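Researcher: Here's a chain I'd like modeled. Treat it as a single chain, no partners, no ligands.
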Amino acid sequence: MSRPFFQILCGGRSRGEVVGRLRIGACNNRHRWERIGLRHVAALARPVAADVPGKSTSNLAWPAHVAPAPAPSRHPDLRVGVDRATDIRPVSSTLTDSFGRQHDYLRISVTERCNLRCLYCMPEEGVPLSPPAHLLTTPEIQYLSSLFVRQGVTKIRLTGGEPTVRRDILPLMHGIGSLRDHGLRELCITTNGLTLHRKLESMLDAGLTGINLSLDTLDPFQFQVMTRRDGFEAVQRSIDRILELKTHGAQIKLKINCVVMRGMNDREIIPFVELGREKDLEVRFIEYMPFDGNRWKHNKMMSYREMLDVIRGRFPDFEKVLDQPNDTSKTYRVPGFAGRVGFITSMTHNFCGTCNRLRITGDGNLKVCLFGNAEVSLRDMLREVPKDGDVSSSEALPEMRIPNDDGVQIARGSIQEQELLDLIGMAVQRKKAKHAGVDALAGMKNRPMILIGG
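Model: Modeled as a single isolated chain. Structure tokens:
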């Protein structure tokens, strides 16, 4: 009989209403640079948006009552998974860079706020947050999601901050989830898990297919040290609930992300590997990366080669698993274990050559590289006052619709979509072959991780 997950450690709106009118058609992808305007081209060289300043483990058991397997009418897409995507489009030239990399994965930060204060993510004193008016609105996020899907994006991940603290996260996910009818294959979320258990089933209803849960320690006391907050047991409940739903047919991938910091949590590598002995999950060890305010030092970073040595000291038969194209992690497994182990090696062995990811920050800037400091504002173009002058583009976004297969009719006062695509295309074309080396990154000006989106 399978043990509860953490016992191992001791031994209202419908989705149609939300985005029904936001679905857009295919666009002409010809680059018309002359229409963009000098201020938008100049933004490509702007480092960062001006408006962003610079001890034992619990033995928690699963709930006594185990819900029956969800009926097809309740979770219609749990078992069909990605097969629902019926209108998958090839990646457009707009999302293809000068090195031939096709970007079909979009990460969107839906909030800058977080209910934890993790050491590697946020300075102890916190960070100045953008004024609410500078953040993307729900219609703007839904519009951009739709636009990128029409250009060939098949995977969207919602990040933060902590995305579950956004008040309308559920209707937002329902809206984005409806894009599965237009080519979206995966809708994922990166979360600290603190409140996830309260919203998990509703997120599955919205089409959630993957969860990356950040957890850097299995010790409740160390959890408070590393996050500067309490909440370890709440995270346990979220993990247990995910695994419970998986046993009842939920087609959802669970990955636990652990940032390894030498002298802080490196002694917990083996206990993290042990999580996969009986449970269907992947633990991913992440090399400690430098961002503004996280006081990164080279001697705090533990390379994945060092982690491999630690694991093989305990499990000599620890073996490599075939990676999928565009994977960010190097995947391994212990023979006989249900789960897997991955390593995200951004510092010592980058994967830039197969990068297929783009990021949109909470304040609407497009980042083509996590470690790059060049950004371009999509928000500013979305809100550009139209030539006829009397209606803001953000107010008009909900009126967008698909009239036919020839293109998109944009409601009076909204943006000129092709100009936006041209701006995105220029940013993608300027993406570098690879990011800078470790020493250069340590001295480079970049946002704190919480203002980028995990």
